[in-house]
Structures are given as C-alpha cells and as structure tokens.
Design a protein that fits this description.
By secondary structure, the protein is α/β, with parallel strands linked by helices. It has 2 domains: 3-271, Spore Coat Polysaccharide Biosynthesis Protein SpsA, Chain A, CATH 3.90.550; 289-372, Hexapeptide repeat proteins (UDP N-Acetylglucosamine Acyltransferase, domain 1), CATH 2.160.10. It is built from 10 helices and 28 strands. Strand 9 and strand 10 form a beta hairpin. The relative contact order is 0.13.
C-alpha cells in the first residue's frame, strides 16, 4: 500500500486576510514557534507518508523558506519527499482571472499532469486551516476496510449559526455512509458532524474526478462532484475525537492561540503525544533572557526573546523584545517585534518586525483583537 499526500496552502487565505497579505495561510505563525503547515506535514510524516505535494498559488516565498528541503520533517529524500507545486499559468491566460484558483477542485485541475503521473494506491488531502494531531494510518485502514471511494474526517460538534455558516456539515447512516452534505448553511444551529477538510481518496478515482472536472468545467469538489455522486459512489466518514480547531476568521485565529495558554488539555492533545510530535523548522537561537525586572506569567515564550518587563497570558515568537516597564497582556507578538520601555499592549496581535515606541498604549478586546501590520512603527 502506497500513499501520497496533498496539502492545499492558499484555499482559505481570505479568511484571515490581515495575516495573509504577504504570506500564505500555510505559513501563518501559530503557537509560539510553529506555522500552520507544520500540522498537516507532521501528521503525514507521523503516518509514514513521505511523498507530499504542497499546492501553492501566490505569496508562497515565506512557505518555501520555511519548508526548505524538508529535512526538519525528514522529507529531504531522493525519492518522494516534499515538493511545492506552483500554479499552472498558460501564456494565453488572463494575467488576473485564470492564473489562480479558489477551490480545491480548481487547484487539482491546475496540477492535472502531476496527478496523472501518480502511481500510489491512495491520496490523503488536507487544508491548512485545520489544526489537529490525527493518525492518518487509522483513517486509511478504515478507508480500505470499508471499501470506500472517499473517506471524510468529521467531528461531532455543537454549532451556533455563525459557526455552522463557516463549515460543511455531513449527514451519514448508522453504517457510516455519507447521505448528504450541507456546505456553509446559514440557518443551522445545534449538534452536527463537521467536515475537517481531510479526505482519503482512491488514486484512480481522484484521477477520474480531475479529468471529468476539466471536461465539464466543474469548480467545486463538494457541489459538483460529491453531491452529484452520493447515490452511486461509496462515501464514508471517519470520526475524529481529538482536539480540532478550524481557523475561519482573524478572531478565530486569536482565540485558538489563546486556548493553548488557557487549556492545558488542548495543548497536550496537540503537542504532547509522544508517538506523534509536531515538527517545525529548527533555528539555532539563544535561549530567552529574563532580566531581574521581568515578570512573566502564564505565557509561551520562544527562544531568542529578551524580557525586561511584564508578560501575562501572551504568546511571544522568536526574537521578541519587551523593554523595561513595558506590559504585554493577552497578546500575540510575531518574530522580532519590539515593545519599547513603558509601552502597554493588550489584546493585540503584532506581525513581524513591529516596533511599539516608548509610552505607547494599545488595546483591543478579546472579541475584537487589534492587529498591527508587518513592519509598522507605532
């Protein structure tokens, strides 16, 4: 049995446009030292999937820099490994309209040649807006045992109307066969099975889907393929019970980061599973420095930070500096941010290389966090 992995890195860029102006969603920092792509990459590597394609669209320079040769995930290999597939651009295409994709199916059509060359038995496909630590081996074995054409990972959740409007809901029989799909409903609330945007699909069936979609101009995997074939194909669910977070807005991004501090069980279910570690790019930075005047409580602090002030309930990435008398609360500070002396920052996300000058006070709210763009001086 051979398995290939496919990761979509740009599909949900619009959901947190504040952070994806100069990077893909896949390379958005998360949890003190990680990027969002670290989770699907690590899940695949931990499940012995060593042939992985990352479908890129635009703004993927930082993603290339982060992944590099793939050695940090043990993917620097002669055969297989990880490769970034840029968008297919025909010389006769419009410069704007047709050069990029908006859906998974359009992305797959763009790499149709690569898919046609696949010789594996199964393909695992996942987005980058899903944060979880999942064992793909269990899902693949379940897929094989059921004889399914497609197996979709789902999680049972209680949803508000706003939450349901950002998800695809799945209805299934007692035997686990999918009977209906409801993409982004506007008037649903209550308990439902939510798609994790993770699929296991038979390689031959995937190739047929891409060919058919190209011939008929289909653009949506859910509406144009799955919903049309529910009665003729064997689509099944795989129930996942671990921690799962879906980033559908900037507020979601902020809240899920904060959950890592507030809920130790969630943190452990992501990062402290011994047989399934989350890997990331390793940097040889000096340890964080805490001066005698520093006061740090309930925070995640990366290496290379210099702390001389107060930090509470916050996440600091590499190289952040907090000056004397400065106060940082309930905030996320990206790499190389500087909080100058006597400044105060609360409920704020600062992108890379932001400088908050002396005596400046900034504050958002837990439901509406403030965002400071990359490289800004305030």
């Amino acid at each position: 049995m051979s398995v290939t992995g496919i990761i979509f890195c740009n599909i949900h860029d619009h959901t947190i446009s504040e952070l994806t102006r100069v990077r893909t969603l896949a390379s958005v920092p998360f949890g003190c030292r990680y990027r969002l792509i670290d989770f699907p990459l690590s899940n695949m590597v931990n499940s012995n999937i060593s042939n992985i394609s990352v479908i890129a669209n635009y703004n993927y320079h930082s993603l290339m820099n982060h992944i590099g040769s793939g050695k940090d995930w043990d993917l620097a290999r002669r055969s297989g490994g990880v490769k970034i597939l840029p968008p297919y651009i025909d010389p006769h295409m419009s410069n704007q309209t047709n050069a990029t994709y908006n859906t998974r199916l359009e992305a797959l059509k763009g790499i149709g040649y690569s898919i046609a060359q696949m010789t594996c038995d199964y393909v695992v496909m996942t987005d980058c807006n899903v944060i979880c630590n999942i064992n793909f081996n269990d899902m693949i074995n379940d897929h094989i045992a059921s004889g399914a054409d497609v197996t979709m990972a789902v999680k049972r959740m209680e949803l508000t109307r706003a939450m349901a409007n950002e998800q695809t809901l799945v209805t299934s029989s007692k035997e686990g066969k999918i009977t209906d799909l409801l993409p982004y409903p506007s008037n649903f609330e209550g308990f439902a099975d939510v798609s994790l945007n993770i699929l296991v699909i038979n390689r031959k069936y995937l190739q047929d889907i891409v060919l058919d979609a190209t011939a008929h101009g289909y653009v949506s995997m859910t509406r144009d393929v799955f919903l049309r074939s529910l009665s003729t194909k064997n689509y099944r669910i795989y129930r996942y019970d671990g921690y799962f977070a879906c980033i559908s807005s900037f507020e979601d991004y902020y809240a899920h980061n904060m959950q890592l501090i507030e809920n130790q069980e969630m943190f452990n279910s992501l990062f402290n599973i011994e047989e399934r570690p989350i890997f990331t790019k390793v940097r040889n930075s000096a340890p964080a420095y805490y001066s005698e005047s520093s006061n740090v409580h309930n925070s995640l602090i990366a290496d290379g930070c210099i702390i001389e002030g107060t930090v509470e309930n916050s996440i600091l990435f590499r190289g952040v500096r907090v000056g004397k008398g400065a106060v940082v609360k309930n905030s996320i500070l990206f790499q190389d941010t500087i909080i100058s002396d006597n400044a105060s920052v609360a409920y704020t996300t600062c992108d890379k290389n932001v400088i908050i000058r002396n005596n400046v006070t900034l504050s958002g709210h837990s439901t509406l966090p403030l965002y400071i763009d990359r490289g800004r001086m305030v």
